[in-house]
């Protein structure tokens, strides 16, 4: 089983090299694979800087309101576990539109359809979770 996950990860990481540059849907698939295989550091690197800052701020706020020890201290811990909705298998990813450094995706997983925003930072596409993390 671990060999299957490793092979899938290597395949996902090799995709951008096949056609010269990573596309927004390639980046989203790589993020999802990292989440589903519990590779939190890799998943974290696929998040935009704003998403990382917003997740960190949300976690700090939750820790200040919750009993001590009940909320994780590292925001990367939010990217693993069975309840992470982004770890679901993806049936299809479509680029709805791409303008400059912003792309909007439509992600289909089973009967569910989700809109996902990607932003290009430092030449790489990253997942933008900030709309869902507003404090």
Write the layout of secondary structure elements.
Layout (H helix, E strand, L loop, with lengths): L1 H17 L5 H13 L3 H6 L3 H17 L26 E8 L2 E8 L2 E10 L2 E5 L7
Antiparallel strand pairs: 1-2, 2-3, 3-4
Helix pairs in contact: 1-2
Provide a quick synopsis of the model:
The protein is built from four helices and four strands, in the order ααααββββ.
- Could you tell me the mean pLDDT? 82
The first-to-last residue Cα distance is: 39 Å
* Alpha-beta classification: alpha+beta
Kindly state the number of beta strands.
Answer: 4
Question: Any descriptors?
Answer:
39% helix; Nuclear Transport Factor 2, Chain: A; single chain; globular; 4 helices; 135 residues; alpha+beta; 4-stranded antiparallel β-sheet
Q: What does this protein structure show overall?
A:
There is one protein chain. This protein is of the alpha+beta class and 135 residues long. It has one domain: Nuclear Transport Factor 2, Chain: A (Roll), CATH 3.10.450. 39% of the residues lie in helices and 23% in strands. The protein is built from four helices and four strands; from the N terminus they run ααααββββ. It has a four-stranded antiparallel β-sheet. α1 packs antiparallel against α2. The longest helix has 17 residues, at 2-18. The termini are far apart.
């Amino acid at each position: 089983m671990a060999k299957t996950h490793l092979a899938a990860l290597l395949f996902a990481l090799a995709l951008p090299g096949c056609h010269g540059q990573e596309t927004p849907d390639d980046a989203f698939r790589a993020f999802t694979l990292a989440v589903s295989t519990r590779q939190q550091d890799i998943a974290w690197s696929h998040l935009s800087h704003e998403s990382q800052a917003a997740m960190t701020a949300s976690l700090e706020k939750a820790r200040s309101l919750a009993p001590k020890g009940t909320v994780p201290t590292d925001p990367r811990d939010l990217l693993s576990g069975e309840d992470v909705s982004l770890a679901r298998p993806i049936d299809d990813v479509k680029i709805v539109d791409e303008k400059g450094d912003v792309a909007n995706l439509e992600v289909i997983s089973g009967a569910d359809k989700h809109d996902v925003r990607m932003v290009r930072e430092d030449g790489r596409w990253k997942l933008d979770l900030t709309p869902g993390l507003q404090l």
